Amino acid sequence: MVSTTPEPHQDDLDGGRTAPPGGAARVEAHGIDHIPDAERRGRPRDLFAVWAAANVNYLSLLVGGALVLMGLSFWQAVAVIVVGNLFWLLTGFLAISGPAAGAPSEVITRAVYGVRGNRLNNAVTGWLISVCYFALNLAAAASAAFALVRKTGLPLSTGIQAAVVVAIAALTLAVSVYGHALIVRLYLPITLVLTAVFAVVAVFVVDHADPGQVPAAPLTGTDLWATVLAGVTLIASGPLSYTTSADFSRYLPRTASAKAITGWTALGAFVPSVAVCSLGALAATAVDMTDPQTALAAILPGWFEPVFLLALVLGTIAINALTAYSAGLALQAVGLRVRRTVSVLADGTVSVALTLYALLVSDFLDTVSDVLQLTVVLLGPAMTVYATDIALRRNHYDAAALADERPGSPFWYRAGVNPAGALALAAGAGAAALCVNTLYTGPVAEALGGVDVALPAGVVVTAVVYAALMRTQVERATR
């Protein structure tokens, strides 16, 4: 059964008070504490715009173009884009645990890793990776904003660059600080605006593109399969980075349809991501997508280019607001007894510092980007073990038990760590590491001629190990 009453000490995480029902005009007071039934609101279909706004963005355009640059034809790239984006179904499936537990993903995964083990999980897969993604996205938005500054004739000095980065981050963090209600309210109009802008871009791209274009040296055999699987992994890294989808569904009534939650979440991300990535791939048949902003400017009318650049900034703000929101919850779940607003601002400060250092001092973002290529080794198994736990428990979570962090609590397991969760994650990540072919070539990938099967290997091994170790224990706990 799902309990509706959290442990009293849990409220300490949000300043020792119970949050009143919130609206878009007031700062959300809830953090990782339980959401009472009286404060539940909304419909599953509201999730569509939340995920759509976050996926009509510059990085999706860039990734789509990259597939053609890797040697795929346009139609091969589209096939890869569709398959890779199917992983949004997993993101949607994780979202059903939010209303069931009335808690964010960062708390629900205590059932997977244990109270102490989950703190480490949140520190790495929740906070560290989120901050890195925030920095990468912020740098992309800053690049578009710098182009706008140049159009005004102002000198792009170091001070102006820093001011631009801080201004974009401030707008992003304002949305994250106000929280869930504002995100739900804003993201539908943002989705409509971004869709309109990218539709105009599509008109001009289609006018210049050649979808039937064949690469000068078409890939065949092992080289083709290696590129296809690398492309699927690249696309799938997007949905795999959102193991926190319950953060945005937890305010829904516990009676909300699980199928509707999964469907609207997955569809909201899948449709725009496929469309924008495919647009990037199509553009790559007409222009050099190694520098999309400059290349697309050559085929867009002059009056529209500033609108396009502003849309790139807006799309990045939308995706980063979700990232910062979840990173703030992760920081609380690590064990820092601060309000959600404080943790969000702390995450933003670190991300801005990394971005400024990267843009103004070194090539740090290149290093971060390389590291994030390897996150599929960890994020694939992390999403799988969470999804397997939901399936084993049939999405039944005890809110009071999840909120109880005391030794001997239901999810304390052994010294605060669930051996099954830790072993399954380690086994899955280990299997993926043997099969990877990005910054290094694992022995399995080498034996396969460079074909990277890290994603399926990590997913299958994790699911099998966790189900084998936890099935009996979960059956006893849910009787």
From TrEMBL:
Its main location: membrane. It is a multi-pass membrane protein. The chain crosses the membrane at residues 48-72, 78-103, 124-148, 160-179, 186-204, 224-243, 264-287, 307-330, 342-360, 372-392, 420-441, 447-469. The keyword Ribonucleoprotein does not apply. It holds the Pfam family Transp_cyt_pur. Keywords: Membrane, Transmembrane, Transmembrane helix, Transport. Residues 1-23 are annotated as: Disordered. It is found in: Membrane. PANTHER family: PURINE-CYTOSINE PERMEASE FCY2-RELATED. Belongs to the purine-cytosine permease (2.A.39) family. This is Allantoin permease.
